[in-house]
Please model this.
Amino acid sequence: MKVHYSPFFPGLLIAFSGLGLFTLFAEEPDPGADAALKGREADAPGKIQQAKVMSIKTYGRIVEASFMNSLLRAIELRKQVKLLVTEPTLENHISAKMSWVQAWLPYLQSEALFSYADTADSISSWPIDPGYIDYVEAKPESGIIANPDQFPDLSPEALDKLNGQDGATTGYHVIEFLLWGEVKGIAGRGKRTHIDYDAGKSRHAERRGAFLVSCCDHLIRQLAGQLADWKGGVPDNARARYEQLPVEEAIGKIFAGIDGFVARNPGLHKSTAIKKGAKTNLDKATFSGLGYMGLVHNAAGIANIATGAYVGIDGKVKVLGIGLIGMAEEVSTVRSERLRHYMNASMRSVKGLNASLNRASVHDGELPQGGHSRIFTNAFGYLLKEINKLAVDLEP
Model:
């Protein structure tokens, strides 16, 4: 069976332009991408076993690229946070918030990878107990920050030891809380201002700033560790061990990662569309009011796996290989076309939603549409259904 790559690769570009990554990072797509695409027919696997071997190599490259992308954005986040702490102005606060969004979104794309669980507790812990970290309404002296006698050390190492004891002290959502503050009521976003980091106007401002910077340092260390584990050409790291597994076991891990993502989001079913009102990643990121973005970028991560491609923060194609759709071409044209269709349908449906993210909306403007369209939820649910069917198809 001949493999047709050209129809699904543009689908990935639709996905990422729809997710607003090009808008957020203000970059243009790589003009060499089309040239890279041409000639792929020569590399097309003629047999399903060869397609599996190639997809394993591609998967390792996608994992590496995902963690590299996340690490680069976390480094930029730390830079903006340090600027806020050093010069607590409104403009610097807005920049730090926007930088958090730009750092969080690419990491969401790694949540469907089977390696996600290795450091999830320290990177993406949820829920967050605001009162364990900082002041909350009616408790101005609550939390680690307000109690230097009990918690004198706010270094990354100290936060790591505290994490999980009585609440989360590390990760994206702790940083989010420290930037946005507590949410009062059941909707909206936190109302923290830059004054909380001004030592001349706010009590505990210095410790709050130290906690925030240390939390960013801890995040960078965790992501750097993940990247080292998945860097190509390193003997006996996680990627090398993965690529040395028997082919069927390695392919099984790809599907296990997606299954694990579904298990962590009980509103998702492999055989149906997303259940109305069920809990998913929509429940995260409530401090910023951007929780609805979680599932969208999780879907983008699954699109990476499906297409065997990855677009970096500079808008350039970093990985171009064989993914689920490439393997499906060797099984059934119908299966590959359905995978492609539901992936593109889910991505197109959120184009306007993601395009609405900007500095004003992140700061104090109107929140972008909080609900997901029925088209997106149905398409994403059926995409997962088709992936599940493909896993059965590929069984030896």
